[in-house]
Amino acid sequence: AQSVTQPDIHITVSEGASLELRCNYSYGATPYLFWYVQSPGQGLQLLLKYFSGDTLVQGIKGFEAEFKRSQSSFNLRKPSVHWSDAAEYFCAVGARGGSYIPTFGRGTSLIVHP
Amino acid sequence: EAQVTQNPRYLITVTGKKLTVTCSQNMNHEYMSWYRQDPGLGLRQIYYSMNVEVTDKGDVPEGYKVSRKEKRNFPLILESPSPNQTSLYFCASHSQGSLYGYTFGSGTRLTVV
To answer: Cβ contact (<8 Å) for B97 and A104?
Structure first.
C-alpha cells in the first residue's frame, strides 16, 4: 500500500520569499502524485499532478513540483509567495492501476508574514 | 458547472440521533469517496465507491455507512453519532482512471454533542 509523509506541520515564510514544501512517498513503483491546497473554510483544490514524463510539473497559481524518484520525493515550490497563498497544503499519492484512490499526507500549514 | 455538492454545510446534532450527509456530483464520475479531516491527522478516508452498488471501507469506517444506488449520489450515514465523530467531512469524486485528481465538495462541519 502507498503512503505519503509531509514532514513539516507548519511553515512560515515572508511575503515575496521562496517556498518549498516537502513530500515523501512510499510506493513500489512510480506513483501518481498530487498537490492540493485548502484555503480556510474551503474544500481542497488540485494544484498540480504528476503521472509520467517531465519530472518538473507546472501547476496553477505559480506553483511547481519536481518528482525525484531516487529520493521518493515530490516537493512543491513557488519562487515568490503572496499573502493569499496562506493555506493548508496536502500531498497525495495514488497507485497505478486499480482504483486510483489517493492517499493523503497530513498536510502542511503555510503561514505568510507581511 | 462541474461540481460536488454536499449538504448541509454545518450540522449540530445530539449523540445517538441518526443523520445523513448528502453528496451529489454532476460529472458522471465512477469513483466517489468520503473523508474526514481532523487537526493534525489530515484527511482520512472513511468509505469509497467505485461504481453503483460497489463500495468498500477506507481507513476509518467504524460508525459510518454509505450507499451508492445512483451514480451521482453517495450519502454518508451516521446511524448513532458520537462526539468522536465531530469533524469536517469531505466528499470527492473522480472518473475511472482519470489521472486528473479528485474534485472535492466544500465540506460539512459536523458537531455531535
So the answer is: no
Contact B42 A106 (CB under 8 A): yes
Check if A32 contacts B (Cβ < 8 Å). Answer: yes
- Give the tens place of pLDDT for each residue, B14-51: 999 999 999 999 999 999 999 999 988 889 999 999 89
Give DSSP secondary structure letters for A53-71.
S-SEEE-GGG-EEEEEGGG
HEC profile of B83-98: HHHCEEEEEEEECCCC
Closest residue in B to A50 (Cα) is B99
- Residues with Cβ within 8 Å of A86's Cβ and at least 6 positions away in sequence, in order, are A110, A111, A112
Q: Nearest C-alpha of chain B: how many angstroms from A16? A: 27
For B40, the closest chain A residue by CA position comes to: A106
Contact across the interface for B102 and A46, Cβ inside 8 Å: yes
Based on its alpha-carbon atoms, the radius of gyration of chain B, rounded to whole angstroms, reads: 13
pLDDT in tens, A72-93: 999 999 999 999 999 999 999 8
Query: How far, in Å, CA of A77 to CA of A36, rounded?
Result: 13
